[in-house]
Amino acid sequence: MTYDNEKIDEVVLALLYLTSFSEDQNIHRSWKGHDWKALNRLHEKGFIGDPKRKTKSIMFSDEGFQKSRELFEKHFSIK
Known about the structure:
It is a single chain. The protein is 48% helix and 13% strand. It has one domain: Arc Repressor Mutant, subunit A. Strands 1-2-3 form a 3-stranded antiparallel β-sheet. It is an alpha+beta fold. Strand 1 (20-22) and strand 2 (28-31) form a beta hairpin.
């Protein structure tokens, strides 16, 4: 079976918002318990920091945090 990586990346980014937390007002992180290939693609797109670091969480870019919030609302809000 082939998969649409763009759709996978969109949903993974949305789910990263679900487990996100803030270290302060400008630094947002999330637990990185998702597919490594998807996390690497999100890093290459500039949405998250390098997932290969030894920490158990990733850091969002400003754009990535905003996009993750938008995608979470798009996919999971009740209309």
